[in-house]
Design brief:
This protein is mostly beta strands. The chain is built from 4 helices and 43 strands. It starts with a strand and ends with a strand.
Length: 625
């Protein structure tokens, strides 16, 4: 029976199309493995995968495609031994045939392992000889989609069975698009040209050229030709490499350009292993670069941190804490926006996040907690898009400093902003200048809100009254902003108006503005510069109307002692860390204020919930050392 698998949202296009020399294929769209042989082991699946079998079976991905899937997350956790064996396949004489297929793993931290074995006799395990062991740890094969080629030249004129053996201790793996076919020995394709989007005039810059070996023999040499704007082409003979069939190799070339202008870097590859490539349709490509005047560049106001999180994500509280630690000391330089998307949705999700901005993950699926900085793919080069994982706080701080050191080619300033508490109209006027030509420039206004209390899943259970901050409430002017007109002298100005709904607390709402590029390619949607306001209303009268109860925690952050004040008598309190674990609590109080000793607490984000005559309220508290 075919089952639906909810983990991968997209499937990459398989790289080698079927041809007249394809003698056998299987894409699992119509088979239930009838005629195949499977072997299970004596291990039970982890409870997360209890609805799957303990060998291989046909499953359906989110996009409707069907694959052969095997679970490797077992109980107890140990290497599994799960076999999937093809029906007999006759390998004709007279040509060198290869097995070509696609294999996918889930996590490089727990690499999936799939061995390929061949038998010329029967389907007993002892009949098979291993011909390839695939370990998806990022060395040769990644934790994602891999195209694999196995030579079957040694089996010419024989009937064979091919076994795929899942012998890892990970999560799950699947295979798809199996073909036995003739693949030319030598072949090469240009997979990617990655040049910096912006470079200073006269300075050296690197261009990463990624090629794919499309032949059945290892790729040991090839020619690489490159130029700028079609002039002064140079050719490099790349030697001393050993690229396995259907895998990738990246060559870095250094270039420079003396003139301030928009340029195109053109690249072509040819002569794989000194021979002729039978298909040159995929041998060339290019990338665009904006060359700017370095002395005219601006200082970046803010780096735009876009954070993907949801109330259903059990690891997100820890992600919030790490981000909070990383931002500490850079609060005035980081504009923080939380998209409630990436791992399902919740009541704080808005369409701009869920339907549009989530595209910045690329085609490799989504997850949370996740983050991107200035929508710049360079910060997470290992990912398909501009979004990467929320790592350790020190690594995030390094990314912030790197982003803030990037020269800004567009200035941005909030000339004035105002909020009318009666009409609830917010007005924000922005202006600036550009030192480059941008026909794709847009300007965006995001409204965020802090101090929203709702439930949050954590690794230790559900946290009630969890404080959600930086929540994106509105993308004024659309998901990708409004086109702006930059005058001949490089200046622009824009005024936004927006009515803040009465259900939002204006005293914890902030306006964030930024100039960004917009291109069909997610690699060219950089945020050029960003700025932000303080809370749009600091009026106590407004706050009292908008909230049933207000508490105050100070100093915040605190190193030794924190004080909590409320509008009415405090009867009890509980403090939890970002994982939802209770670290301090007290009942039966009759206090006007609390004095909390935080000297023994680890640095991080905590949440203090108090109960008073007026009800309960929660306040976030940062503890520093």
């Amino acid at each position: 029976m075919k089952k639906t698998l909810l983990f991968f949202a997209a499937l990459l296009t398989f790289g080698l199309a079927a041809s007249a020399q394809t003698i056998w294929s299987e894409d699992f769209e119509t088979t239930d493995l009838t005629g195949w042989t499977t072997y299970s082991d004596n291990l039970a699946n982890h409870s997360s995968y209890s609805n799957f079998g303990t060998s291989w079976e046909v499953a359906q991905l989110n996009n409707g495609d069907h694959v052969a899937l095997s679970i490797s997350y077992t109980n107890p956790a140990q290497d599994c031994d799960r076999w999937l064996i093809t029906p007999a396949i006759n390998i004709p004489t007279g040509a060198d045939y290869s097995l070509v297929f696609q294999v996918c793993g889930y996590s490089a931290n727990y690499p999936e392992k799939v061995s390929v074995r061949v038998s010329t006799s029967g389907t007993d395990k002892t009949d098979f000889t291993e011909v390839l062991d695939i370990i998806m740890d990022g060395s040769t094969y990644i934790a994602g989609y891999n195209d694999v080629l196995v030579s079957l030249a040694a089996y010419s004129g024989q009937d064979i069975h091919i076994a795929f053996v899942n012998h890892g201790d990970g999560y799950y793996t699947f295979i798809d698009n199996l073909q036995v076919k003739v693949v030319p020995a030598n072949g090469i394709a240009l997979a990617d040209v990655n040049a910096p989007s912006f470079v200073g005039a006269g300075s050296n810059f690197n261009v990463d050229v990624t090629v794919r070996n499309t032949g059945s023999a290892p790729l040991t040499s090839f020619d690489l030709t490159y130029d700028i704007n079609g002039s002064n082409a140079q050719t490099v003979n790349v030697t001393g490499v050993n690229v396995a069939p259907l895998t990738y190799y990246t060559k870095t070339i250094s270039m420079s350009h003396p003139t301030v202008e928009n340029i195109t870097v053109n690249v072509a590859v040819d002569s794989p292993n000194g021979g002729t490539d039978s298909d040159v349709s995929d041998n060339s490509g290019n990338d665009n670069v904006i060359v700017y005047n370095q002395s005219a560049a601006f200082t970046r106001n803010n780096t735009l941190l876009e954070h993907f999180t949801t109330a259903q994500c059990q690891y997100c509280p820890a992600g919030h804490e790490r981000l909070g630690q990383a931002v500490s000391g850079l609060e005035d330089r980081v504009a923080w926006v939380a998209h409630h998307a990436g791992f399902y949705t919740d009541g704080m999700t808005i369409p701009a996040s869920e339907n549009d901005i989530i595209q910045m993950y690329g085609n490799s699926g989504t997850w949370a907690p996740a983050m991107m900085l200035d929508r710049n793919c360079d910060f997470f080069p290992e990912e398909e898009g501009a979004v990467g994982s929320v790592g350790q706080a020190s690594a995030i701080t390094s990314l912030f400093n790197r982003a803030l050191a990037e020269p800004a080619l567009v200035s941005i300033a909030i000339d004035n902003w105002s909020f009318n508490p009666s009409t609830r109209e917010l007005s924000v006027t922005v202006s600036g200048s550009s030192i480059i030509d941008m026909d794709d420039a847009r300007i965006s206004l995001f409204i965020t809100e802090d101090n929203i209390h709702a439930s949050q899943t954590s690794t230790s259970g559900t946290i009630q009254n969890y404080q959600h901050d930086h929540v994106l409430r509105a993308a004024v002017g659309g998901s990708w902003g409004e086109p702006i007109s930059i005058t001949a002298d490089g200046n622009y100005t824009k005024t936004f108006t927006y009515n803040i709904p009465t259900t939002w607390k204006a005293s914890t709402c902030r306006a964030i503005v930024f100039v960004n590029r917009y291109n069909t390619s997610i690699a060219e949607r950089h945020v050029m510069n960003a700025a932000k306001t303080d809370y749009i209303s600091n009026s106590a009268a407004v706050e009292n109307v908008e909230a049933t109860m207000t508490i105050k925690t100070w100093p915040n952050p605190a190193a030794e002692t924190a004080y909590v004040e409320a509008e009415s008598t405090i009867h009890s309190y509980t403090m939890v860390n970002a994982m939802g674990q209770v670290v301090m609590t007290a009942e039966g109080l009759n206090a006007d204020a609390l004095e909390l000793d935080v000297r023994n607490l680890a640095a991080g984000i905590y949440y203090v919930t108090i109960t008073t005559d007026n009800g309960t309220a929660t306040q976030r508290l940062s503890v520093v050392k």
